[in-house]
Amino acid sequence: MFYGVDLTSRLMLGTAQYPSPAVLLEAIEASGAEIITVSLRREGAAGAAFRNILSESRCRLLPNTAGCHTTREAVTTARMAREVFGTSWIKLEVIGHADTLQPDPFALVEAARVLCAEGFEVFPYTTEDLIVGEKLLEAGCKVLMPWGAPIGSGQGLRNPEGLRTMRAHFTGIPLVVDAGIGAPSQAAQAMEMGLDAILLNTAVAKAVDPAAMARAFGRAIQAGREAFEAGLMPRRDMACASTPVFGLAELV
Amino acid sequence: MFYGVDLTSRLMLGTAQYPSPAVLLEAIEASGAEIITVSLRREGAAGAAFRNILSESRCRLLPNTAGCHTTREAVTTARMAREVFGTSWIKLEVIGHADTLQPDPFALVEAARVLCAEGFEVFPYTTEDLIVGEKLLEAGCKVLMPWGAPIGSGQGLRNPEGLRTMRAHFTGIPLVVDAGIGAPSQAAQAMEMGLDAILLNTAVAKAVDPAAMARAFGRAIQAGREAFEAGLMPRRDMACASTPVFGLAELV
Amino acid sequence: MFYGVDLTSRLMLGTAQYPSPAVLLEAIEASGAEIITVSLRREGAAGAAFRNILSESRCRLLPNTAGCHTTREAVTTARMAREVFGTSWIKLEVIGHADTLQPDPFALVEAARVLCAEGFEVFPYTTEDLIVGEKLLEAGCKVLMPWGAPIGSGQGLRNPEGLRTMRAHFTGIPLVVDAGIGAPSQAAQAMEMGLDAILLNTAVAKAVDPAAMARAFGRAIQAGREAFEAGLMPRRDMACASTPVFGLAELV
Amino acid sequence: MFYGVDLTSRLMLGTAQYPSPAVLLEAIEASGAEIITVSLRREGAAGAAFRNILSESRCRLLPNTAGCHTTREAVTTARMAREVFGTSWIKLEVIGHADTLQPDPFALVEAARVLCAEGFEVFPYTTEDLIVGEKLLEAGCKVLMPWGAPIGSGQGLRNPEGLRTMRAHFTGIPLVVDAGIGAPSQAAQAMEMGLDAILLNTAVAKAVDPAAMARAFGRAIQAGREAFEAGLMPRRDMACASTPVFGLAELV
């Protein structure tokens, strides 16, 4: 599914903001995730310890460039991540705005070009903009990661029509909703629309019980995908009886 | 949970409109439901055959009064159902409007009074109206089944604020969303709000693959409940970083 | 339009909660309202003074039974209002729940029966429930006042599908959205759906500048009605060009 | 307000798709618009006749580059428009996608740079993307025209949170919602959020009665602005009484 790698789970999990490494590991386990994102930003001994912890999860690592605001920062971070984590996968974030953490489409496309040319397999964090998506594919990306809402906001799908249009336009390209999902029902909704996977962090890490919430998300995402494949009933404007009425006259 | 009966699954399944009895049984099995609703309206040999089929499911039966438009019809139907199905459980529907199939609150409360007095354990299909709910409890009901949207419409939760208010008001009373749910994400949303269970029919029966859809709903409902218990993150108006940024200076 | 009285304005204004009588009069004037509601609850000298103030507005008075929780309270209040205000019009409120101030449908219908039989022209504050609406018409009401949302909440139309269904069902009956409207856009939305008028109080009284807000609501309600009559364009799922493209080849 | 030009009306009107020039002129008049957009695409004698018609409206003309898909097309069209219409104002559209007619942010910013450098006063049709907006300001634009929804769709504000964020970020920059508005209530909603103006075409041109619809939009936009200035009440989660209850005891 992603760059030739087939996976069972459609949930990817971020590893920041957990109360403790133990809780993080529990949450990963409970979620069923096979891919976890990881930031390079934990340096020195703490960073090494953290990477040891992650290796226990037996998940595939997807390093990210979280916190980078320029093409240069993102490219440099990606190169270092490749060395440190031994993978050409990179979740490319180039933040354009400090409050909303929205991607900078210009720097993002430029960084994607550079990194794809260097052999990276890029997972770009982008908006629902079709044109930006097309430029990312032209740059060599084979996956797109549109946001649902601003990172950490828990607002769910802020522009569902935009995502629906994106799905219709990019047939055959894996689309992963990345950022803004706050509840399992929102993740299921995205899956029911035919989006391919969900990347979560805050909603799990900041839950009262992260492992239980991770399990709930894992289940809801599977449910949304199954529903998409099972063919949802069409929505109707007016009601119609689900129980056919016959034989009533005899009863009264 | 319901009239002293504890259950594992929070999904109840209707048994109308399936392509075939075999598909119905598959769907029940896949859903994990422990309660299925059944209409008395299948008379004679066909009815007996159908009841045999349902008995294979090993679910507890919840007979309904679907299609009844008056107190008298509903009460008569309930009495016959008690005899035929050997249970004092009754899902009480008194339809007030032929197009929307909304309950008639006046006839509903009256029928509930009569039936509770006769020892029935009544599951009333009602709107999100608090006062109607209170009257139903006064009548002796120990469960309420507010609609999500008109029966068979698949619109989901048409008035989520109304259901939220209902949840806040009726602490300790099991609330089952009955009617209008079209997708697993909608069922999960109801569960995340703290509602207790979901009754479905059309969304499963009319899916392209009913058994797969039943499985999806079962999972989504479980996910929604787990999320409710695990403590959802609060929704935020503005974005905030999920990955704390530090150590960036060294990288560039 | 209402009990044989034709009006130009489709806005009715409540008179509670204003910073001062002068501001109230200004708001009434700016709104263009021809009907104002008034509570009997201001007793003694203060009440008389207040009624003098209202008489300056030259609006038709619609006394209400705000704060009544039983049929008996409401009926008694209506009778007193008829004497004090010299009108058989009565806005009938029978509150069923102290927090949401939702109407009690049972007591409401009962009070409507009593009052209609006594020659009152009743404007019942009700929910969007079709059956309750029908009972009110049977009782003799010739107008229905469904809520938009709980009184004073400013949530707008909490259940637009419910109101749309109500409009479709009660052709020829004036429907006035009463309660819950917080912004002119919400009032316009109701009018675009073909509802007949809006009753407001809190959104005007609690605005920073009540008179300016009253003017804004008056205009928005007129706009919504004009739009309904002018025939709104259908909503489209996908975009289509508003400017036909031709002659482009020559330009490049 | 726009490039040093102060205006009374906050509605701009497109001139395409009307049943006849007479209806167009009526709609302009009824709307109160002081700015109308016009496409260069009507060539030859028909174009000259059309321009004569528009000059009767006494509105300020805002030529557009509708239908352009590349920077070069848009720049060439803008230059021709300046000559033909004798104005340095240009509504810059560079379409990136044939179905949704969404702007191409890359070509848009490039064209804006070229045109601003040539002394044009550019009104760019853009998305709600903050970074694209910033680039357009850097290019020299002093106005932004974010879309509400795809052109001609009548969906209203598809991403209200995105527009709200845009408003918060670009203090002091006029923001005009351009495209997607289908009903006056939607236009009023945008104005209540503090956006500065609305550009409409299809919703008026395709109304059953365009002039009446134009009047409705004019009024709704004024209402929305007045409401913004008058200070909207805060939305409340739970209901609270608008009529203070006192003196009740005496009545019963």
Automatic annotation (TrEMBL), chains A, B, C, D:
Subcellular location field: Cytoplasm
Enzyme Commission code: 2.8.1.10
Stored CDD domains: ThiG (cd04728)
Active site: 91
Pathway where this protein functions: Cofactor biosynthesis; thiamine diphosphate biosynthesis
InterPro entries for this protein: Aldolase_TIM, Thiazole_synthase_ThiG, ThiG
Superkingdom in the source lineage: Bacteria
TM helices/strands, residue ranges: none
Alphabetized UniProt keyword annotations: Cytoplasm, Schiff base, Thiamine biosynthesis, Transferase
Residues noted as binding 1-deoxy-D-xylulose 5-phosphate in the record, renumbered to the chain: 152, 179-180, 201-202
Principal location class: cytoplasm
Domain Thiazole synthase ThiG, chain residue ranges per copy: 3-244
Catalyzed reactions: [ThiS sulfur-carrier protein]-C-terminal-Gly-aminoethanethioate + 2-iminoacetate + 1-deoxy-D-xylulose 5-phosphate = [ThiS sulfur-carrier protein]-C-terminal Gly-Gly + 2-[(2R,5Z)-2-carboxy-4-methylthiazol-5(2H)-ylidene]ethyl phosphate + 2 H2O + H(+)
One matching Pfam family: ThiG
Described function: Catalyzes the rearrangement of 1-deoxy-D-xylulose 5-phosphate (DXP) to produce the thiazole phosphate moiety of thiamine. Sulfur is provided by the thiocarboxylate moiety of the carrier protein ThiS. In vitro, sulfur can be provided by H(2)S.
Subunit note: Homotetramer. Forms heterodimers with either ThiH or ThiS.
Family (UniProt): Belongs to the ThiG family.
PANTHER family found in the cross-reference section: THIAZOLE SYNTHASE (PTHR34266)
UniProt-recorded name of the protein: Thiazole synthase
Source organism: Gluconobacter cerevisiae
